[in-house]
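Example record used in the benchmark description.
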Amino acid sequence: MYKVAKTIYFNYGHRLMDCHDKCSHLHGHSACVEIEMASAKLNKHNMVINFFDIRKTIGAWINENLDHKMILSEKDPLVKLLKKAGEPVVVAKENPTAEMLAKWIFQAAKRMKLPVSKVTLWENQDSFAVFQE
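Model output (structure tokens):
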């Protein structure tokens, strides 16, 4: 099995509902996501996938859908207020945890027919979540 990975950086804000700690307040993260691609065989260029193609597909999706967005649960009462104020809000069915963001990125890469095998999302320098099937 051949594997390659691309690291992409982005910033986002969120808060976690029903968490009785500081994560229940609005806060932001400078995230680092490592997107691993895997294939049993190489393409005609002797690659799993070109790193540039990762950047222009799933990297562009991250930039458009997550970067500099406030990601909130649909149950969060701030959603309506922030949208009314013109803020870029992404509404999630669930709490927007690092685990869920890793899953979203994985699923978006799958929809793009990329050979994604694992997504690791670093919320900060010492905490990360992984999603893989």
